[in-house]
Amino acid sequence: MSDFGEPARRDNTRPYRVGYAPGAYDLFHIGHLNILRHARSQCDYLVAGVVSDEMAELAKGRRPMIPLVERLEIVRSVKYVDAAFVETVPDKVETWKQVRFDVIFKGDDWRGTPKGDKLERDFAAHGVDVVYFPYTVHTSSTQLRRALDALAEAPAGPGQLTAELR
Fold first, then answer.
1. CA–CA distance, 100 with 19 (Å, rounded to integer)
2. Minimum mean pLDDT among 43-52, 54-63, 82-91, 121-130: which range?
3. Which of 17, 43, 138, 142 is most buried by a 10 A CB count?
C-alpha cells in the first residue's frame, strides 16, 4: 500500500490507479505542466517525484537553480498532483517499493534509449507500465538556464542584451 493514501473511489475511465511522474522540475515551465496534466488524465491518483538536489547533480552534472524545498512546494501546488515525493535514490524500482505506483510517466526523449529500455525492463518485472508523453522541445530547463547564464554574462549596454539572447 502506498504511503500517500488511496483515491476515494476508482474512476474506471482512467487506465491506472496510481501514477508516478518523476523529474527535477527545475525552473518550472510548460513542459513540466504538460507532463503532469497528461499523467493525471491517465490515473486516479498522481504522485510527482521531485529529485533531490544531489540526485539532479548526479543525473545532469549540475545542481538545480531552484532549491529542493521550493521545487517541492511548486510541484505540490499544481492542481494535477495529488502528492509529491522527494526522490533520493537513482534506482526507480527502489522508489516504486516506497510509492507503489502502477505506471511511471516519462518524456518521450527516453523512448528507445538505453536508460528508457532499462526502465521498461526493470518495471516489467513488477507489472508497472512505462508511458511516454511528448517532450516539449521548444521549452526546457536547460534552455532557460542558458538564457539566464547569458543574462548574467551580458554587457550592460542598451540593446546588446537582446542581440546576445538570439
1. 9
2. 54-63
3. 43
Identify the helix (H) or strand (E) that includes residue 106. strand 103-107
Residue 162 has, within 13 A of its CA and on its CB side, a CA count of: 2
Q: For 99-117, what is each residue's pLDDT tens digit?
A: 999 999 998 888 999 999 9
pTM score, whole prediction: 0.78
Q: How far is CA 83 from CA 24, 44, 94, 140, 158, in A?
A: 15, 12, 18, 23, 45
Cell output for 70? 521550493
User: 3-class DSSP state for residue 107?
Assistant: strand
What CA–CA distance (Å, rounded) separates 40 from 20?
9
Residue (of 85, 90, 38, 33) closest to 60 by Cα position: 90
